[in-house]
């Protein structure tokens, strides 16, 4: 199983500490501390996993940029928005929902409300990755939560992406929003479980 590079430090540090405590352990406290550190390392190994997937292929598809549970589907006269909550058990790797070129990557400082709070997508710290193609503009918002204290983008302006290409990761529980053109047919609804690069979020109406 592959691990995203941002996870290495979270895996190594508690593992090394845990082994030191266990090897030197003389007493219940050191053994308990060592066991706890090893368990934390194993959890981080699971959390930062990068599983093999088969990207969904097809014309006019808009794929899920993340794993998680759909929080909300909304829209207005200019766009539609799908918000997804990522629990600590979900894969936290984000992927491009469409083919296109990265127009911008914008960091916005902010608060660290719980990812499921109604105002989290507005006031929380976030990265906004804008992807453009002939059908319009797509915004992938990586939003920090109460545990997620860092959103990492792996792309830069000018990068050309294919559907399902890896674009970033969020460290621990968080939220991802996808803003898409209004001329789309939404295929998911609140409560749906979605998989990055696999689940079809919407199709373009030509």
Automatic annotation (TrEMBL):
So where does this one cross the membrane?
A: 7-24
Q: Known Pfam families for this protein?
A: PS_Dcarbxylase (PF02666)
Q: Superkingdom of this entry's organism?
A: Bacteria
What species is this protein from? Answer: Endomicrobium trichonymphae
Q: Which terms does the UniProt entry file under GO BP? A: phospholipid biosynthetic process
Carries keyword RNA-binding?
Answer: no
Name the UniProt record assigns to this protein:
Phosphatidylserine decarboxylase
Keyword tags: Cell membrane, Decarboxylase, Lipid biosynthesis, Lipid metabolism, Lyase, Membrane, Phospholipid biosynthesis, Phospholipid metabolism, Pyruvate, Transmembrane, Transmembrane helix, Zymogen
Q: Which InterPro entries match?
A: PS_Dcarbxylase (IPR003817), PSD-A (IPR033175)
What GO MF terms are annotated?
A: phosphatidylserine decarboxylase activity
């Amino acid at each position: 199983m592959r691990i995203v590079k941002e996870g290495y430090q979270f895996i190594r540090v508690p593992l090394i500490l845990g082994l030191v405590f266990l090897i030197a352990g003389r007493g219940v406290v050191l053994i308990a501390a060592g066991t706890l550190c090893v368990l934390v390392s194993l959890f981080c190994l699971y959390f930062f996993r990068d599983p093999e997937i088969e990207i969904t292929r097809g014309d006019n598809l808009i794929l899920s940029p993340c794993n998680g549970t759909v929080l909300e589907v909304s829209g207005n006269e200019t766009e539609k928005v799908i918000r997804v909550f990522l629990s600590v058990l979900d894969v936290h790797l984000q992927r491009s929902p469409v083919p296109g070129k990265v127009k911008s990557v914008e960091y916005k400082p902010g608060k660290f409300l719980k990812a499921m709070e109604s105002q989290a997508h507005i006031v929380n710290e976030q990265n906004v990755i804008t992807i453009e193609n002939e059908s319009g503009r797509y915004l992938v918002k990586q939003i920090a939560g109460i545990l997620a204290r860092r959103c990492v983008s792996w792309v830069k302006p000018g990068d050309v992406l294919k559907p399902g290409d890896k674009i970033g990761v969020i460290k621990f529980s968080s939220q991802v929003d996808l803003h898409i053109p209004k001329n789309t047919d939404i295929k998911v609804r609140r409560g749906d479980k979605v998989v990055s690069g696999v689940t079809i979020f919407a199709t373009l109406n030509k």
